[in-house]
Amino acid sequence: MTMTANTRRLIYVLFVIAVAAPMVRPVPMPLMVKQETRDLYTRIEQLKPGDTVVMCFDYSPGTATDIHAAAVAVFHHLMRRPGIGVIGVAFVADGPQFAEQTFATAPPGKKYGFDLVNLGYRAGGENAIAAFSQDVQKTFPADIEGTPAGRLPLLSKVKSARDFALVIEMSGGTPGPAEWIRQAGQPYGAAIGAIVTTVMVPPNLAYLQSKQLAALLYGLRGAAEYETLVGRPGNGLAGMGSQSAAAVFILLAVAINNIRRLVLRRRALPSERRPAQ
Amino acid sequence: MITKDTGVWLAALVTLATYSYLAKENPLFRMIEHFYVGIASGHAVAMAVVNLRDLGTRPLLGGQFIVVVPLLLGLLFYARYLRRPALARLPLAVLTGIGAGTALRSLPGASVLAQLRATIVAFNSVDNIVLALGVVSVLSYFLFTTPQWRAVRLASDLGKVFMMVTFGASFGATVFAGHSLIVGSLELLLGRWLGVLPK
Fold it and tell me: Which residue in A130, B31, B36, B172 is deepest, having the highest Cβ count within 10 Å?
């Protein structure tokens, strides 16, 4: 009853077809927007002109599919709000490239240094977050291109985490929302919203329930929900059909294999009961 | 229409070579695996050099002589290759101390007290009752030093159920994260490379 290599390969091929089909021929999927996603949207809608938001790009290519679409949707929402400044920062070495990709989609009219700044990466994980929360310019004396902090007007508005209207931590592991809560939320009272991979949801729900996290978006689903809220379809909504198809395929595969095993066991039983000749 | 972008071609071929492992272990997959490790190491070294430049040499040349202390501590890591390897423990001790100190500064408040406060709830909804039951029963599972009274045994059995549900949710989340990766790879192959996805 064990699965042969060819059966396994056949399952892989069928799985790829099941995931690819809704991409080639998109199927509209009903999507309910969760409250934790709506919370981030509302929080951003409530920002006032002159507020500064920190977007922390703590993810790498391995987890980008789960996070990046949501990052882009949230960034566009921030850019639509008048007078909101966005500071991009990373405490994961691969993070700055995603900050650059996201900021490259900024609408025309937004000025670097005034509306958005990319500070790049700083090593040290939680210690670096603590230093950044305590003194922004001391931790990042220059932006990713080496422009001194003093020549970036947006940075003159923020001294410490007390001056952040909102921190959006986008994480695929460590550091993640817990580190930000410990170093910026708890000591400085900064509001923290998080965009995390689907794997990181169960541990972070505890922080959402205790209101230490203001909002939580997760995986492609979170991206799709946010794209629906801001009315800007992107990779999140495009991937929802495939993700649903993949889930249905796996459920069917599990069900079919269990039925097959039951049938084979029932067929084998009479012969097993027969006494040995 | 197939793209002419060399970067996308390279990414697509590397993706196909990676997935070729699903058919069979093969030299192409192994080559890509070695490339991946090499590139990741190279990237990490480059980032370390940038850090050393931004936080070490530049401030030092700018007259901030205090950075000599962390630079020297960093160099001491290499003492393990000298006759006095014990010196390498000094920077490690400093790092551990700073890490523990930074985390402990707000860990009790953020991870213990705030979580504790969040479990003190009025029993006025099913959510709150499930939350209180879950916390008490899961904690009772970890009572290893008390006699196993019937009530404790029952509570710990219930705790096991809560934990199983949590592990199930975590496993489901892991499977879904895997789906996202496949979706990302197919978007690259079918969209950016072959151009067969609708715009």
Answer: A130
